[in-house]
Amino acid sequence: MLMSDTRAWLEIDLSKISHNVKEIQKLLPSTSKIMAIVKANAYGHGDVACAKELSRCGIDFFGVSSVDEGISLREGGIREPILILGYTPPVHFHQVIQHDLIQTFLSLDYAKKANAWCKEHGVIMHGHVKVDTGMSRLGIITQQQDYRIEEVKEVYHLPHIAVDGIFSHFSVSDGLDEDNKAYTRKQIMLFDQVLKDLEDAGIDVGIRHLQNSYGILNYPDLKYDYVRPGLLFLGATSDDAIDTITHPDFQPIMQLKANISMVKTIQPGVCVSYGRHFTSERISRIATVSIGYADGYPRSVSNKGACALLHGKRVPIIGNICMDQMMLDVTDIKHVKEGDVVTLFGCDGDEKLPIDELTRLAQTINNETFCWMSARLPRIYK
Ligand SMILES: *Cc1c(COP(=O)(O)O)cnc(C)c1O
C-alpha cells in the first residue's frame, strides 16, 4: 500500500490500464483501433502519465478537447497523433501547426477560416471533419431533416487544409430502451450515408470514428477505423447501475484517500459541523479527516448517507462536508488514531467503495465526479 505524507491524495494504479485496454480490444473487431481520449487531464487521472502508459499498451492516437491539452501532451513527450476534439480560437491556429496537432473542422465556416489562415501563412493544417448526426453540438449538420453533404465535400476540397479523417458523436449510446436504440441506429445510418456519399464523389474520407465508451459497450460490432473511449481505460463507466449490452471486467485505477487529523470523544446531544445537521445520540468517537469540497469531494452529498472506508470497514460521513475537512462517526471502529488513512472511494482490505456510490448520491455521472478531483490533490502513481 502507498502511504502519503500529504493530507489528501489520489492513488492511481497505471498498471491496470493495460488490463482495461485489453478488455476494450476483446469487444472490438480486430480492424478497429483505439484513440484514447485523455481530455480534462485524462478526467483528472493525469494526461501525460496516462498517455505514456497507453502508448506502452500500443495506443497510437490520442484525443483532447483543446489546443492547450494537446500542448501539455507534447511537452510531456507524447509523439503520437493528437486530435483536438473541440474549438481552437483562430488566434491559436499557429499552436496547432507548431505542435503538430490535428484540428477538428467543426463547421464549413470554421474550416474556411483555417484554410484562409493557412494560405496566408504558407502552411497546411491537418484535421478531421466532424459531422453532426444527432448530437447537435459540433459538426456540419447531416441529420435527417437537414443533410448538408455538400458542405462536408467542400471542406474536403479546401486546398490549404488536409482532411485526414471524419467523425461524429453519439448522444444516447448509453440508452437501451427502444426509442434511444432507434435514435443511435439512425445516427449510425446517417454516418454511413455520409461516408458513402463522399466515397461516391471520389473523396478519400481518411480515418473514420464514431464510438465513445458506451458506443463501444453497446455497439461493439461497428467497424470503423478507430473508437474513442475516455472512461473505459480508466476502468469506469458513467454509473455501474446503467445497464449495457456487454459486461467487460474493468478495473478502476483511481482511489481517493485522506488522513485522519484528530479523533475526539463527544457526549450525547453534541452537534457536529456547520449547520448542526448531526447531533450525537450516544457517547461517540468522531474522526476529523483532512479532505473537503475544495479537494473535489462534493458538499452536496452531506447528510445523505455517504460513507468512507476505515480499517477495512464502512463508516458514515456525518454533518456538513467543509471546504478542507469532514467528520466521520468512528464509534464502532477500534483504535482509530491521527494519521490513519481513510478511503473516500476505492478499496481498503476486502471492502470496496466504488466511486459510483458517491456519484449516485451526488446525482451525476462518474465523468463529472472524476473532474471534480482538484489540482490540490497530489496524484500518486503506482
Ligand atoms: C469526451 C468524448 C469522448 C469520450 O467519451 P467517453 O464517454 O468518456 O468515452 C469521445 N468523443 C468525443 C467527441 C468526446 O467529446
TrEMBL record:
Uppermost EC category: isomerase
Please indicate if the UniProt record lists Ubl conjugation as a keyword: no
Q: Which UniProt keywords apply?
A: Isomerase, Pyridoxal phosphate
Q: Where is the active site?
A: 39 (proton acceptor), 274 (proton acceptor)
GO MF annotation terms: alanine racemase activity; pyridoxal phosphate binding
According to the UniProt record, list the residues that bear N6-(pyridoxal phosphate)lysine: 39
Q: Where does substrate bind?
A: 137, 323
Annotated Gene Ontology cellular component terms: cytosol
What this protein catalyses is: L-alanine = D-alanine
Function noted in UniProt: Catalyzes the interconversion of L-alanine and D-alanine. May also act on other amino acids.
Protein name, please?
Alanine racemase
Record the organism.
Longicatena caecimuris
